[in-house]
Specification:
The protein is of the alpha+beta class and 480 residues long. Helix content is 50%, strand content 6%. The strands form two sheets. The protein has a four-stranded mixed sheet with strand order 4-3-5-6. Helix 2 packs across helix 4, helix 4 runs antiparallel to helix 11 and helix 14 runs parallel beside helix 18. The chain is globular and about 70 Å long. The chain starts with 9 loop residues before the first helix and ends in an 11-residue tail after the last helix.
């Protein structure tokens, strides 16, 4: 049997791409550098805000109990821990509020795994800001391109999701491995091996989106941990298959049944970057709910009051109904704030009754509000249906059409066909910074919030990640 040349494989081309960019290689495009700095800030703010969740406390307790070589710091802990454990903890924190960014049409959350993995290894290796920026950039790009391979342009379906798989965690493991391997200086062959190892560690199912459970909060942590651990194994001589993606028993066969778009992985690699187009989340809820939130906020601004509502029809793409609208009785009566984040009926009620942050904020998604009688009453009047107009746009956007029948017989309709936070309706720098301040300011004093924001802006020119991470640490006051 003749071995496939490494550079001829999809993984080999991604590995070559990963080691091409950085301080000693090709410069990153300026929009990519700027985007990475914004995503680091976004991830850190979400992670800080998530430290008070019971699931976060449990994970931080486990990480502290495991101990190990003191390579990297963790928000909410006093001691340093191994880089893989730090990556796990920060990945869990970054994904736990469902406030992390989303790439379309891959429909995955790339930064919540890649950024934690890169920051952890950057501490271990004493990487410069330019080095960690480049590692995050290539890790994000690889993550979303592997995700895009599962998008079926003919039908608009996401093959990962159709099979119940969470592309965020599976593709995040590969992107994290590439970022970690780059920072460990493994070279193209080593990065390829790291991704090949991580492919055997990639996992995640999304049933929790539908019927409950908090395991989804672990997914980005597991992906970050897997990526770092895979790179460390590659550093020690463990090898992976060069055909990890397209091989007969590779990633795409295992997870996509062999149906994948190779062009989405490699076409324009290095010339057309996906990173700047990753959507920021303005609201701390499943991204499928956001256009409906915007529609409800618009109707509210035009004078609609909850008491005026007789019934509401939230029309969304067919593929999203099962996540935010099924089972309807569960979505109309979430028991926790976390379940409410995946409920179309709840997010419509919250948009008509609440309002914080950039329109809806973390304070709108509490266990108490999920069970609030007024919200339950309003939720009972909201149904979620599939809409052909939305299907024609999905998954390049997550559109919604909101139709409200009022108690006096009027029919109000508000269509939102492009998501706020994406390229068509981008958040401003001030809005991204405002989201960070709202999140981090829940735990940290204002001077430290300001210091982190400044360090994120100047990360590409920093000597290390110390200025970024020092103000976050428990010894400086973050309570456990």
């Amino acid at each position: 049997m003749t071995a496939t040349p490494v550079t001829a494989t999809l993984g080999g081309q991604l590995a070559d791409f990963a080691v091409t960019y950085g301080p000693t290689g090709e410069p990153l495009p300026e929009p990519v550098v700027r985007s990475v700095a914004q995503r680091v800030l976004d991830v850190l703010g979400i992670a800080v805000a998530a430290t008070t969740l019971p699931t976060s406390v449990a994970v931080l307790d486990l990480v502290a109990e495991r101990g190990g070589r003191p390579d990297a710091r963790v928000i909410g802990l006093r001691q340093r821990v191994p880089a893989s454990e730090a990556a796990f903890a920060h990945g869990v924190l970054a994904h736990s509020l469902d406030y992390d960014d989303t790439h379309l049409p891959s429909v995955l959350h790339p930064s919540a795994s890649v950024v934690p993995a890169a920051l952890a290894v950057a501490e271990q290796t004493r990487a410069t800001g330019a080095e960690v920026t480049a590692a995050i950039a290539v890790g994000l790009e690889i993550c979303v391109r592997v995700g895009m391979a599962g998008y079926d342009a003919a039908t608009g379906a996401n093959r990962y999701f159709e099979r119940g798989q969470h592309a965020t965690s599976m593709c995040g493991a590969l992107g994290s491995a590439a970022a970690a391997g780059k920072l460990l200086g493994l070279g193209a062959d080593g990065v390829l091996h790291a991704m090949g190892i991580a492919a055997s560690m990639a996992s995640g199912i999304i049933e929790g989106n539908r019927t409950g459970g908090t395991v989804k909060r672990m997914h980005c942590g597991w992906a970050a941990h897997a990526g770092v651990y895979a790179a460390q194994l590659a550093q020690r001589g463990i090898t992976g298959p060069a055909t990890l993606l397209e091989g007969r028993f590779g990633f795409f066969q295992a997870f996509l049944g062999g149906e994948f778009d190779a062009g989405a992985v490699i076409d324009g690699l290095g010339q057309r970057w996906e990173v700047p187009g990753i959507f920021f989340k303005p609201y701390p809820a499943n991204h499928f709910t956001h256009a409906g939130i915007d529609a409800a906020l618009a109707l509210r601004a035009a004078g609609l009051r909850p008491a005026d509502v007789a019934s509401v029809e939230l029309a969304v793409p067919t593929a999203t109904v099962r996540t935010i609208g099924e089972p309807l009785d569960v979505k109309q009566a979430p028991e926790t704030g976390y379940q409410a984040q995946f409920s179309g009926p709840y997010t419509i009620a919250a948009a008509l009754l609440g309002g914080g942050g950039l329109g809806l904020g973390l304070d709108d998604f509490t266990d108490e509000l999920a069970r609030d009688p007024a919200r339950r009453d309003l939720m009972s009047r909201v149904t979620v249906v599939a809409d052909p107009r939305c299907d024609a746009i999905f998954p390049h956007q997550f559109p919604a059409v909101l139709r409200v029948r009022t108690t006096d017989g009027r029919l109000l309709e508000e269509a939102v066909l492009a998501n706020r936070g994406g390229s068509q309706r981008p958040l401003t720098d001030d809005e991204v910074a405002g989201k960070f301040r709202d999140n981090a300011g829940r735990v940290l004093p204002p001077e430290r919030v300001t210091a982190i924001a400044q360090a994120a802006r100047t990360l590409p020119d920093a000597a290390s990640v110390d200025d970024l991470l020092d103000p976050l640490m428990s010894e400086n006051g973050i309570p456990l």
